[in-house]
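Morning!

This is the sequence you dropped in the shared folder:
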Amino acid sequence: MNCQVCDSSDLYEVLDLGHHPPSDAFLTEEDLNQPETLHPLKVLFCKDCRLVQLSYAAPPKLLFTDQYVYMSSSNEPFKAQLHTFAEKLIEKLGLSEKDFVVDIGSNDGTFLEPFINHRIKVVGVDPSSIAKVAIEKGIPTVNEFFDENIAKTILEKH
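The structure's back. Tokens below.
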């Protein structure tokens, strides 16, 4: 395996947590007696660029399904942290109504709420079923996996 950023092969294994099922992949009662798909969970460190990374990424379509359950807004401390971070970005970068913010992996739109409150144009991108929550809250959201075509569409529209 090579580093995801600098392509170096000089990687050091920091932690091996064995094999795990995808996060939030809750089994139905009928599935409890079926074999479960497991994936390696190893943390690596690149000695060249110092990126900490996983050795394996589960296929995104396996993780972000119509059964996805986690919502950023359900965790009050995390929600507060996202709002504080957004406010700091607005202040530090001097963002205004003429600016545009894109949140890739926007979940239920929690991070984008402070930008909207400051009348800053936003769009979220999230492939999970939770994106519908953001849309219902009036947060412009593309319910797809982010890729080059989605980026082009966002640039064309906004």
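Headline: Residues 11-59 form one domain.

More detail when I'm at my desk.
O.
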